[in-house]
Design a protein that fits this description.
alpha/beta, single chain, five-stranded mixed beta sheet, 12 helices, seven-stranded mixed beta sheet, 14 strands
């Protein structure tokens, strides 16, 4: 009986040893935890979107050269502001140079020659530059693209005469000394005269002068009148009206209608009386929109960044100059007479607007 009791004790001890060994083995080999899925961003509708990789600034900034008219013009003010906004949003990405020029035609020529990357110009100049016709004959075709159009009236033609002259109508310009900036502004004058069955030959004298030189020449009597197209009220003309005075000559409704029939990129504008000191009557004239074009060599990212900055900072740009009131996708895509750059098209597509790129 005692032997049986000892045997049972030995068997129970052996069982306990085996149990402890099993527990120790289990503790030394832990069970893997369930895998945790990587976090993903959630779209408003609850679907998972891929996580966007932040853009990294290049080792050296991309140089962007923008031609946008005279130093004292509103476009120069605006595009210095655009440059600041791009640099604020994308520090280190771009080195932006704002190039002063005589205006639309020179901007297009600089763009066609590869001396700048972006240029502002009238709609007709953009079409001629794209086609390689007129002043751009021999410079190739299809080498520029649209980025967007400016809001507002565009460049309205001002025929400004000496306040003491006897000039009251366009016909009164016959036999007078006139000036206009070379290129587009001279074209505006020729179109004004065309609408009244006149030419430059009807003038006593004609000169190509810069805007500042024309205003000086008017005041010292070297010229009787000059022609310049710009948004209104033009700051330079506001100052001239206050300090010296001038007459603003109406092109006339019938003449403008005749001109639009021949050149449909124009539209009629009325400069209301009181816009300039001493000009109390409404003045009927014509205008065309300003568009922003770029080289086909501009990268898609650069084109996208320029358009995105302008469209995303509308309030900032309007604060810089009221002529940018109304800037946005609708006004920016209002004209489709030449193809848009692929980078600009990508931005507008994100806003639900399709523009032609070919």
């Amino acid at each position: 009986m005692k032997k049986m009791s000892r045997l049972l004790s030995v068997l129970m001890a052996l069982a306990m040893v085996l149990a402890l060994a099993a527990c120790n083995s289990a503790a030394s080999t832990p069970t893997p935890a369930p895998a945790t899925p990587a976090p993903a961003t959630q779209a408003p509708d609850g679907n998972q979107d891929p996580v966007e990789t932040p853009r990294t600034a290049p080792s050296s900034p991309t140089v962007l050269r923008i031609a946008c008219g005279p130093l004292n013009g509103y476009q120069n003010t605006i595009y210095n502001g655009v440059a600041d906004l791009i640099n604020k949003d994308l520090p280190g990405f771009y080195s932006i140079m704002i190039e002063a020029s005589t205006g639309s035609a020179e901007n297009a020529r600089l763009l066609m020659a590869g001396e700048v990357d972006v240029g502002t110009m009238g709609l007709d100049v953009a079409k001629n530059a794209y086609d390689g016709t007129g002043a751009f004959d021999g410079m190739g075709s299809g080498n520029i693209r649209f980025l967007y159009a400016h809001p507002g009236t565009g460049a309205a033609v001002h025929i400004i005469a000496h306040p003491n002259s006897d000039i009251e109508t366009i016909e009164d310009l016959a036999g007078k000394k006139m000036a206009a900036t070379a290129g587009v502004m001279q074209g505006y004058l020729e179109d004004t005269l065309f609408a009244h069955d006149m030419t430059l030959d009807d003038l006593a004298d004609f000169k190509n002068l810069s805007l500042q030189d024309m205003m000086t020449a008017l005041q010292d009597g070297t010229i009787d009148a000059f022609c310049y197209g710009n948004t209104f009220p033009n700051t330079n003309f506001t100052d001239l009206a206050t300090t010296f005075g001038f007459k603003l000559i109406s092109v006339g409704e019938d003449a403008v209608a005749k001109l639009i029939e021949a050149k449909p990129w124009y539209h009629q504008e009325v400069i209301k009386g009181g816009t300039y000191t001493g000009v109390d009557n409404d003045v009927v004239t014509f205008a065309q929109p300003t568009v922003v074009c770029c080289s086909t060599n501009l990268s898609d990212d650069a084109a996208y960044d320029i358009v995105s900055t302008v469209m995303s900072h509308a309030d900032d740009l309007i604060a810089m100059h009221k002529n940018f009131t109304g800037v946005g996708v609708e006004t920016g895509t209002a004209y489709n007479i030449i193809p848009y750059h692929a980078g600009a098209a990508r931005f507008f597509a994100e806003q639900g607007v399709t523009v032609e790129t070919e």
